[in-house]
Amino acid sequence: MPPETLTKHRFAQIIITLAILVAAFTWRTLTHSDVVTMHCVANPTCSLDVNGKTLTVTKGDTNYDGYLLYPVHNEWTIKPEGQRVGDGKTVLMNKTTQEITILELGIKIRIL
Question: Closest Cα to residue 72, out of 112, 101, 35, 29?
């Protein structure tokens, strides 16, 4: 099979495709933010400095077999979702929860 010649149209198509790929990878590199991982040994409590605010994780007692997070600010989205109680600043997490993410801040809290 003889090789085909590179036409102006095909060359322009290759250049445009490469330019789009370079732009996409550059944009992704510039807008990427690292996720900060914090470790917490809730035995029975641990306090973390989260964005200049203290977040306390307490291992549940006989009333609740899981973890309590407080104070959780209303603008924070916690994953996995827990049950907000009281004034909404305390979140109850299941005892099987090992990792909590605050989406707005890009912070992971690993419970050990």
Answer: 101
Strand partners, 25: none
Query: Alpha-carbon distance 95 to 60, whole Å?
Result: 8
Round to whole Å and give the CA distance between 41 and 112. Answer: 5
Q: How far apart are CA 14 and CA 80, in angstroms?
A: 44
Residues in the chain: 112
pLDDT of residue 85: 72
Q: Is the pLDDT of residue 1 over 80?
A: no
Q: How confident is the model at residue 102 (pLDDT cuts 50, 70, 90)?
A: confident
CA nearest to 61, candidates 82, 48, 47, 42: 42
- Closest alpha carbon to 75 in 96, 44, 50: 50
Rounded to two decimals, the pTM is 0.62
Q: Tokens 């407080």 label which residue?
A: 70
